[in-house]
């Protein structure tokens, strides 16, 4: 049985008892991955690493979406 982990996404607290990675989070919340920047524990995380970084207890994730305009 997996331990429940607490993590923070854009300042909101979430809980998971599954093993999840950053790509899982982006997909679950239906973000358009081509239009965002992901910060993981205060470091900008390249897209090619998202499926290799697994969420641990007390991790902090910030997702910033890019919006065009004029």
Describe this structure in words.
- With 70 residues, the protein is mostly beta strands.
- It has a single domain, classed as Roll (Ubiquitin-like (UB roll)).
- The protein contains one helix and five strands, in the order ββαβββ.
- It has one helix at 22-28, and strands at 5-9, 12-16, 36-40, 43-44, 59-65.
- Strand 1 (5-9) and strand 2 (12-16) form a beta hairpin.
- The longest helix has 7 residues, at 22-28.
- The termini are far apart.
- The mean pLDDT is 93.
Summarize the topology.
Layout: E1 5-9, E2 12-16, H1 22-28, E3 36-40, E4 43-44, E5 59-65
Parallel strand pairs: 1-5
Antiparallel strand pairs: 1-2, 3-4, 3-5
Features:
1 helix; Ubiquitin-like (UB roll); single chain; mainly beta; 5 strands; 70 residues; 34% strand
CATH superfamily: Beta-grasp domain
Main sheet specs: 5 strands, mixed
State the strand order across the main sheet. Answer: 2-1-5-3-4
Order of helices and strands: EEHEEE
Level-1 CATH class name: Alpha Beta
Summarize the structure.
This protein has 70 residues and is mainly beta. It has one helix spanning 22-28; strands at 5-9, 12-16, 36-40, 43-44, 59-65.
